């Protein structure tokens, strides 16, 4: 086993994906079960992504889910991957995460994105007259940093709780714009390569080249999120992966559906253009047996030189999903 993978922390990104025949009432306890096992298996952090108006994604209120998971685990870091900051007032975010960090000291991460996490009509419903908030993203990140700073004690507007707490801020992105911001502010950078692979390599290179050390971070730090479906055999992993392929086909075609059960083959389930689009979105995905996962992860780390990998796994059967995360942990630990 190469030492390369042994040196890479590994984490979970959870969208609280809702599968056919189930509801969020079923989904959230499954997330807690996974988080508890992920803690045992050596995962570093467990993040939720903010999405809205998506019938198959239950993580519309990540702050609440972070509290739920942190309260049900002991040591794993829990956070947002991320909070879409233009949807919220920075002061409210500071207070919410200040509360979480007060309840679970040293365990809360705040990942920030600038996208709406939904379509434009839904963004309008969330933001109202503040539809141009994305343009204020750099300034709003600075506001958050100010609210968390102990130096803000004499300000007329303070985040209580939040002020003086060390809550790591991460910049999330799917483009080069976010890379420039993370580099300029000397913050760690998490890239959404699990669904936006096109600018991934360019963005992390730009981030590293332009990184300015800060009080928060002295060298660049990159997390890449990838899709993983691991099983005991390649054939079983590829069969299970048809669920995420169907799921992404729904994104591509605008015909969203609850996460469907796997099928024996995608032949006949998509046309040529749908297949091309889905495979492009899933470019950074690993489907396979432990040996296949190890080889593909080794190649991915050598290509990207990432500091940490974050795994998301859209798998229909809960037990198969748990097994996938267990296999991945075993690979990363060299077992």
Structure, described:
This protein has 335 residues and is α/β, with parallel strands linked by helices. The protein has a single domain (3-333), classed as TIM Barrel, CATH 3.20.20.30. It is built from 13 helices and nine strands. It has helices at 3-6, 24-40, 62-72, 90-103, 120-127, 137-148, 176-185, 200-210, 234-240, 242-253, 272-281, 290-304, 318-333, and strands at 10-14, 45-48, 77-84, 108-113, 169-173, 189-191, 222-230, 285-288, 308-312. An eight-stranded parallel β-barrel has the order 1-2-3-4-5-6-7-9, surrounded by eight helices. α2 (24-40) packs across α3 (62-72) and α4 crosses α6 (137-148). The longest helix has 17 residues, at 24-40. The chain is globular, with a radius of gyration of 19 Å. The model has no long low-confidence stretch (mean pLDDT 93). One of its GO terms (cellular component) is cytosol. To bacterial alkanal monooxygenase alpha and beta chains. It comes from Mucilaginibacter gilvus.
